[in-house]
Amino acid sequence: xxxxxxxxxxxxxxxxxxxxxxxxxxxxxxxxxxxxxxxxxxxxxxxxxxxxxxxxxxxxxxxxxxxxxxxxxxxxxxxxxxxxxxxxxxxxxxxxxxxxxxxxxxxxxxxxxxxxxxxxxxxxxxxxxxxxxxxxxxxxxxxxxxxxxxxxxxxxxxxxxxxxxxxxxxxxxxxxxxxxxxxxxxxxxxxxxxxxxxxxxxxxxxxxxxxxxxxxxxxxxxxxxxxxxxxxxxxxxxxxxxxxxxxxxxxxxxxxxxxxxxxxxxxxxxxxxxxxxxxxxxxxxxxxxxxxxxxxxxxxxxxxxxxxxxxxxxxxxxxxxxxxxxxxxxxxxxxxxxxxxxxxxxxxxxxxxxxxxxxxxxxxxxxxxxxxxxxxxxxxxxxxxxxxxxxxxxxxxxxxxxxxxxxxxxxxxxxxxxxxxxxxxxxxxxxxxxxxxxxxxxxxxxxxxxxx
Length: 452
Ligand code: GTP
Ligand code: MG
Hints:
Layout: E1 12-17, H1 23-31, E2 48-53, H2 54-61, E3 74-79, E4 90-91, E5 94-95, E6 99-105, H3 112-124, E7 128-133, H4 149-154, H5 158-177, E8 182-184, E9 195-199, H6 208-227, E10 236-245, E11 249-258, E12 260-262, E13 266-269, E14 276-279, E15 282-285, E16 299-301, E17 303-305, E18 308-313, E19 325-328, H7 334-348, E20 357-361, H8 364-376, E21 381-386, H9 391-398, E22 407-411, H10 417-426, E23 429-433, H11 436-451
Parallel strand pairs: 1-3, 1-6, 6-7, 7-9, 8-9, 20-21, 20-22, 22-23
Antiparallel strand pairs: 2-3, 4-5, 10-11, 10-19, 11-18, 12-17, 13-14, 13-19, 15-16, 15-18
Helix pairs in contact: 2-6, 9-10
Magnesium ion is lined by residues 23-24, 44, 79, 81.
């Protein structure tokens, strides 16, 4: 292969799945660090990104990954907490992730957030594989630390493999119910047409070599062309999270998916009102193989190339929105870049009507997903915005003519206590949930009650 590896960017891998199905543990196993132990109650609070270089992937995967077969530099994993929506992970024209791992607990099977993740993968046409996790919990399992799946299968009794196969075929059946043709990964010939299911244990590491081999193979085979980027070009990214950081004020955790960002760059960022034009004050990189969200000691760097997770410190970031675009200006006309950011924001903007419900969501991507879902059930929106439910949202909702629309639907957001009080006084009903279709179900139940 004649391609210059330095011009290929790292594929972005989103790890999705229902709460507690083992997303963080799986990454933890891969990283060989103990991020999970630093997590309050082992619940992931924020989104983080972790780059795993090819040589480490090949060390873990052993015979299954020969580094000479690949020219991609590795994989950038993004851990999405189960209660947080994958919809944040958007980029210009679609999904931020190039590829995804959907983690499903073999015992627990498909759950609401599994279905929600599948729905988003379908809509964004993101290729993915399923990690059927926690195989070590099958009764009678004989663990073989870090073993590839075929070797550990051979070490199990027929009864044990029979039980596991049963769970795996249930998952394959569930995928088929959702319109995906799926099979155990070693039976899949064409990963574009069929979803591969990889049995793994994040606890014992069994099947992890297979998982990494399949991810590398998929990336190399189907996405290499898209990984060729202009590494020296002005950076383009997406805000994952807006965060206060001691000593730096408001910062944005960003996934850079194209070009480079430098410590002296001027940048344009999607804001609540207008695009924010500001200068980078510091680029903060977590140490290699460390997690953005648990890393307290950052390293200041001069330049970062895609794909990477990077914390950007700059003035005037208070209005930045999760899910919004980030663009480096560098040698271009500022006005042109501002227009690009405006166009991207307009692309995500939600159509509102004279009358309807108020919608709040945690990120631009999730606001967009909410608007899609509400238009499917033909529920009009009067006002849609990123952020927690605030008193002014209650004021807007209280003006609805139809009592069925004196409602606020909040996805992945909190209700400020002032707003709660106002809602009670103004007779506005506030629904919040972390799964879109459940939020809509709650609303529909409310309407049924009203009409009864
Ligand atoms: P959220 O971030 O809250 O959505 O959860 P998560 O999907 O990241 O799950 P997490 O990795 O925090 O794991 C949840 C629990 O399952 C923890 O107690 C893990 O120790 C346990 N667990 C994860 N993977 C495995 C596995 O393969 N085997 C066993 N036995 N336990 C596992
Ligand atoms: Mg987690």
